[in-house]
Amino acid sequence: MVSTIEPSSQNGHGPESQNRAEVPAVEINNLHFTYPGLDGQPPPGMPPLIQDFSMTLQAGSRCLLIGANGAGKTTLLKILGGKHMVDPSMVRVLGRSAFHDTTLESSGELSYLGGEWRRDVAFAGFDVPIQMDVSARKMIFGVQADPARRDRLIKVLDIDLDWRLHTVSDGQRRRVQICMGLLKPFKVLLLDEITVDLDVLARADLLTFLVSECAERGATIIYATHIFDGLDKWATHISYVAQGTLQLFEPAEAIPELKEMSLMRTVEKWLRADQALVKAARKRQKEEADKRPAAMLMNNGWAGGRLTSTVALPHSSNRVLR
Ligand SMILES: Nc1ncnc2c1ncn2[C@@H]1O[C@H](COP(=O)(O)OP(=O)(O)OP(=O)(O)O)[C@@H](O)[C@H]1O
């Protein structure tokens, strides 16, 4: 399953983008990934969590990564962010292996704002808890950054530099954290639901800022989220994942459902259709497992809720660009 999307006019490419387009910003080739069990080995009898996953994004793209809880979005973003080791041929960011080439992250070219990042923040070379008694000014000015970019982000996120982080609200603290995460001019940004605490204005202004980063600098963003407010026209591409398999990857403008209904309704429709199939497959699998002798279940049976084989979902293959 190979999907390649060329940059579209809505990506805001300037003339100097010719070179950028030669090396895709993100390239995933037939990715397979399994979390190791306690013995460090893949659990026997289970299919890979992520399988047969291919997707290419050119510079300037904004891709929404959509899928049910447990679909594999965070896992995928972590792999792209170099947090999990995979064969370098399967995942390239800016033409390099994110796991093996640590300069991608240390240079700020690749930025991952996800789970662990929500609790701590990189400050002066250390990961420090975001709730410590320190001012927003000290945190934000502790990161080496272009002063104009810093001022712009402080304005976009409407940050009061005198805020003490241990006394402000969750949303205010999150603004400081997001500001710090965006201070370096990233080329590829991976966002794993970071806007949950933001109010409507902060979220809208941040989303607008991210659009300008792609249009003006050719940055590429993959954003995993369950909150679709304000995102109807935001993405250039939609990537829909179910059971670790890419079900749909298309330019947003090429998705017929989005011409008729909102992004939220569209996603709800996809999820409901897939949920019904997965539930039925789970039931079948459990019934089969119940019939087998207990000894056989050790290696080949019901896996406590996870399917031991993939269900063909209605979107499979035909919705992925080839
Ligand atoms: N460290 C781990 N070890 C083993 N399994 C894991 C680990 N992390 C996640 N998983 C499993 O991988 C599957 C996908 O998890 P993942 O966090 O990638 O899903 P997600 O799409 O981001 O879900 P959500 O929308 O709930 O954040 C889940 O079944 C989860 O239990």
Structure write-up:
The chain is α/β, with parallel strands linked by helices and 322 residues long. The protein has a domain at 21-33 and 47-109 and 186-289: 3-Layer(aba) Sandwich (Rossmann fold), CATH 3.40.50. Helices cover 33% and strands 18% of the residues. It is built from 11 helices and 11 strands. The chain has helices at 17-22, 73-80, 103-106, 115-119, 136-141, 147-156, 170-182, 200-217, 257-260, 263-291, 294-297; strands at 26-33, 50-57, 62-66, 91-93, 110-113, 120-123, 126-129, 188-192, 220-224, 237-242, 245-251. Strands 5-8-9-3-10-11 form a 6-stranded mixed beta sheet, with helices on both faces. It has a 3-stranded antiparallel beta sheet with strand order 2-1-4, with helices on one face. A hairpin with a 2-residue loop joins strand 10 and strand 11. The longest helix has 29 residues, at 263-291. The protein is globular and about 65 Å long. Mean pLDDT is 82; it is low at 4-20 and 298-306. The site of adenosine-5'-triphosphate has 10 residues, from helix 2.
CATH topology name of the domain at 21-33 and 47-109 and 186-289:
Rossmann fold
Calculate the terminal CA-CA distance, rounded to whole Å.
Answer: 7 Å
- Outline the low-pLDDT stretches: 4-20, 298-306
Shape: globular
As a percent range, the share of strand residues is 15-25%
Q: Biggest sheet, open or closed, and with what strands and sense?
A: 6 strands, mixed
The total of beta strands comes to: 11
- Strands of the widest sheet, in order across it, are 5-8-9-3-10-11
Q: Averaged pLDDT, please?
A: 82
The CATH architecture category of the domain at 21-33 and 47-109 and 186-289 equals 3-Layer(aba) Sandwich
- Global structural class: alpha/beta
Keywords: ATP-binding, Nucleotide-binding
Protein name: ABC transporter family protein
InterPro entries: AAA+_ATPase, ABC_transporter-like_ATP-bd, P-loop_NTPase
GO molecular function: ATP binding; ATP hydrolysis activity
